[in-house]
Automatic annotation (TrEMBL):
Pfam families: FAD_binding_3. GO terms for molecular function: FAD binding; oxidoreductase activity, acting on the CH-CH group of donors, NAD or NADP as acceptor. PANTHER family: DIGERANYLGERANYLGLYCEROPHOSPHOLIPID REDUCTASE, GERANYLGERANYL DIPHOSPHATE REDUCTASE. It comes from Candidatus Heimdallarchaeum aukensis. SUPFAM superfamilies: FAD/NAD(P)-binding domain. Residues 3-319 form the FAD-binding domain. This is NAD(P)/FAD-dependent oxidoreductase. Signal peptide: none annotated.
Length: 403
């Protein structure tokens, strides 16, 4: 019997497996697809600080598509631009398929077995253990384990089978890799907070170089691809995309509202998108899910060492990841809800205000891709902003409950 079985070979699953293996326990990863990293439904924008937190200080150069990102250009519907930047590069754009395969290679080097073509269809408790029932293509039809880490990603099927909930809010996303974009500066990510093109979220252009970028939108409505085409053909962008060519298309979804009520039960821990561990402001989940995954791997290994698989022991996983970033998620969720409640004119006014040097200075000094708490608190101390916040606050309170 394998001691720990991780279900899902995405970043959260692989990082939890890698962490657990450091405690010299048997770990098996089951992945439903025929290869690790087979679909790339991600922009791959990762902060350097965040990568350090998940133990990936130095990524191999072949994974990195752009290491020169120093800031972001934020645009409103009528073209007002706010540039937020740091003095040095602080984020990387990675090839997500290669990134996943790199994590799998570390797992392999740590002695972890990864079985592809192994979809777990059902999960149930069998006396003190957990029994997994696998799909037809898998090597074995049933596997028994002491601890299982559920890392199925955005649409988990197994959480409910063990009495846990699923992330309740989903953003639909579509992204094209496009070549031949005019006026692209590989040092800046472009963000478009425009309700017409990306209702309930935003559009992005994440440069790979000065001509090729990952261009995408997230929205609460479907089909996201239709919104993305409208975005690219919009008055704001169409000239820059006149001779552009779509190299690849991908679609996906991002759990955004909030993390699940409880991320553990007897013999079980849930990590990554399956637990709703994503940033409500941007949808990024690799770093936060990765931080939680490392904690899950450690606690799962300790459960094996101490032979204690009870939820009373495993709950320390949730306590620890919540201590790391639950407060940050709460603030970021309010920011996302506030931004969604603003109309395009409000966003335009907000960007105009933030263009003043004193606010740009706040963004430069307090800006953090993974944690926007510090900026929020600082901005709330600025009395000059309160008339705007009060004017728009009513809309926020009114719309908030709809989310
Ligand atoms: C368009 C888009 C852009 C994004 N951009 C960014 C970004 O720039 N930065 C960022 O940090 N995040 C980004 N994200 C979010 C990021 O992709 C996710 O947060 C991240 O991949 C979550 O990792 P995970 O391991 O939890 O899930 P996943 O990456 O979804 O991995 C889950 C794995 O489990 C496997 N699986 C599922 N069910 C089973 C089963 N029953 N049995 C066996 N295997 C199973 C799946 O095949 C999959 O390989 C983006 C998402 C989208 C959609």
């Amino acid at each position: 019997m394998k001691k720990i079985v991780v279900i899902g070979g995405g970043p959260a699953g692989l990082l939890s497996a890698i962490e657990a293996s450091k405690y010299d326990v048997d770990v098996l990863v089951l992945e439903s697809k025929k290869e690790i990293g087979i679909t790339e439904h991600c922009a791959g924008l990762l902060s350097i600080e965040g990568l350090e937190k998940i133990g990936l200080n130095k990524l191999p150069s072949e994974i990195i598509q752009n290491k020169e990102i120093i800031g972001a250009k934020i645009f409103s519907a009528n073209g007002t631009e706010l540039v937020v930047e740091k003095n040095s590069n602080h984020a990387l754009v990675v090839d997500r398929s290669k990134f996943n395969r790199y994590l799998a290679s570390i797992a392999h080097d740590n002695g972890i077995e990864i079985r592809t073509n192994s979809r777990v269809k059902n999960i149930h408790r069998k006396s003190e253990n957990i029994e997994l029932v696998l799909g037809k293509q898998a090597k074995e039809s049933r596997i028994t384990t002491k601890v299982s880490i559920l890392a199925e990603g955005r649409f988990p099927k197994l959480n409910s089978q063990v009495g846990l909930s699923n992330p309740d809010e989903i953003i639909f996303a579509s992204q094209f890799i496009i070549d031949g974009i005019e006026n692209l500066d590989k040092r800046y990510v472009e963000l478009y907070q425009i309700s017409k093109y990306a209702p309930g979220f935003f559009g992005w252009i994440i440069p790979i170089d000065n001509s090729v970028a990952k261009v995408g939108i997230g929205t609460r409505y479907r089909p996201a691809k239709k919104y993305l085409r409208n975005f690219i053909n919009s008055e704001l962008l169409k000239e820059r995309f006149y001779s552009a060519k779509i190299l690849r298309e991908m679609s996906g979804a991002i759990p955004l509202g909030s993390y699940i009520n409880r991320s553990y039960t007897d013999n079980i821990l849930v990590v990554g998108d399956a637990a709703g561990q994503t940033k409500p402001t941007t949808g990024g989940g690799v770093i936060l899910g990765g931080i939680a995954a490392r904690i899950a791997g450690e606690i799962a290994a300790k459960a094996i060492i101490e032979e204690n698989y009870k939820k009373s022991f495993l709950k320390q996983y949730e306590k620890r990841w919540k201590k790391e970033f639950a407060r940050n998620l709460f603030i970021m969720k309010l920011v996302r809800q506030y931004l969604d409640s603003l109309d395009d004119k409000d966003i335009d006014n907000l960007l105009k205000i933030f263009n003043k040097p004193k606010y740009k200075q706040i963004f430069t000094s307090k800006g953090d891709v993974d944690n926007q708490q510090a900026i929020v608190w600082k901005l709330l101390t600025k009395l000059e902003l309160w008339p705007f916040f009060m004017k728009t606050g009513l809309k926020f309170i009114f719309k908030k409950n709809k989310w």
